[in-house]
Design a protein that fits this description.
Layout: H1 3-16, H2 27-41, H3 51-59, H4 64-67, H5 80-84, H6 99-112, H7 129-135, H8 139-143, H9 147-153, H10 165-178, H11 199-212, H12 215-231, H13 237-241
Length: 272
Amino acid sequence: MADADRSSIEIKVLLKNLDPTKPSIKHKDRLRRLNKFRNYVTAKPPPEIYDDDYSLLLLGSESPTAMEDEDLSHMTLFGLLRAAGCPSTDHKDSLKRSARPTISLLRYLCLELEASSSDVNNILAELNGFAAALCALNVPQLRTLRLDIHIGKGDNESGSRGGSKDDACHLLALILARHTDTDYETPKPLAIQIFLPESRSQAEFETWLGENASPDVRMAIKENIAAVEGNGGAPSAEAGRKGMPSFDDGDDEDNDDVLGVFGKKSSPPKGG
């Protein structure tokens, strides 16, 4: 069996057993499958993966890969994004227990696999297939991650059902810095309010970014946010600098409020 064919099977088996709404699939079984897939992709040498299978892993049955495949179209495949943002049926504004380990796997695949470190600053390096596929998704698809719950209620307020704030912040930083059109190349910046409509959650993310991201990462995100606000989403670095405070090489104080710009908009964002 070709290596990429084996990867396709591993992905399909994972997604078939990831559905958190099925009582027949126990929480421990979902965890086992998540861990098994992580172990599979970390093998040396790393397994090959077909380009179409990246979107299949992220979106499951809602991916073009599944919709256009006669066999897959009859399966229920729960993509990583949907599983990571699946709401709890018993706890208001909370997530399924498996949402936390699922978003942790997604962060690992996008930012740590094949990287020299697990640092958030990998965002500015060349993206691997998982990260590139994530950044090329459209807004409705990305919203299924429910980053608002992960960041607004993760870790502290709702325990495991609140999700994982740290993992969500890593992924949001990646999306805000590197989002593209579906061609995987043309930059297509997105507004922070698309994912975090509440100012409190925006402040949580801003604090996290200041504590964890390098000045280069913060600047990249700030320029993209400014481009969305001042240029209708056009990916212009010059537009991103218009009206923004200057950054002196020896002055770190301006970087502390690197995302202050997105808290100043009174009009609702466009959903892309």
